[in-house]
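Support request, please re-run this one:
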Amino acid sequence: MRRVVTIGQTTAGGPAFLVIAGPCSVESREQLLRIARKVRDAGATALRGGIFKTRSDPRSFQGLGADAFPLVDEARGETGLPFVAEVTSPEQIAPLAAHVDMLQVGSRNMHNTALLKELGRQRTPVLLKRGLAALLKEWLFAAEYIMQGGNQDVVLCERGIRTFGDDTRNTIDLAGAVLARQRSGLPVLLDPSHGTGRPELVGPMCAAAAAAGLDGVIIEVHDDPAAALSDGFQSLTPGQFAGVVAGLRPILRATGRDL
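Re-run finished. Output below.
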């Protein structure tokens, strides 16, 4: 049975294709509002933005933390779009859930069973990213940890896995994403930004996700990628994002769907 997850005023897993877009990190009020307005106008149906960041380099920007909460509230209120942000520890769940519409589990935390169990006790929808090199069954087991606690509102996200290839940041397992959807009945999104690490590949991978019947995409967008505090190298500009969304529409219509 197919699961439809409600996220604010939108859904994942229904007839509409979900497009989540925004910066890797919330950097300032002005930055977030500028980008939020632009992605909304281009067709995004939800916003994203990192508040608490888990980074490989401990010297890199770790996010604004709780200082970002009023900025997120303002962006949600002005655009009317639901907001997705990553949670990195059980202690962050309650504060984040008061300000965002969906809690994201990043790839590093897919195996964090303490976090997954606590998310299962909540009623905030969860976006569960696949681990860095997780098997399909491990990814689905992680979803079960959340659902066994009572929270059935889980959306899976394929973000590429680590392989011997180095031409892209990760290797997107599109077949695995489709198989996860078939086996679990849960909505499945694709993250082409982390999956490829290359802006020029984001559009083609979004098109592939739509054609393969996945339920949506999550895309990093920044209006000045070179100055971004995190992951600017893989971010689309608002203009590039608008082009990707425009390219999705005929594919979705051909499959009986729309944004």
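The domain at 5-51+61-252 is CATH 3.20.20.70 (TIM Barrel). The mean pLDDT is 95.
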